[in-house]
Amino acid sequence: MLAAASPTSEHPLETIKLVLLLEARGEKYPESLKNYLKDVLTQTLDLLRDPAASAPTALPDAVSLAVKLSTNDDLRSAVEEILKEDDIASAAAQNALSNLEADCDANRQSAHFSREIYAAI
Length: 121
Fold this sequence. Notes:
This protein is mainly α. The chain has 7 helices and no strands.
């Protein structure tokens, strides 16, 4: 299921990246965004543990992030670190953001879904 995932927008995971950036900088933002981030991260790990049970209700960002986590152990560790505590540590958010952006192309788009990657195939 994760192997067949495709982006649902031109910029997958932008909301997740934004919340991680705000958290890493220690800036204030709505609690609803923090809740969304934690929901996505929880669903992402659930998808990796049991895709068949989690897929029907998974958010699109959770599916996109699960694809990335399936091949990036550092990102997975960063996500697990964020979910350990009620409050998100700035260092954990920065670590997750750095790992997430590490596989972006020159336009800061996910290299997994990049037009350049598909054109090169």
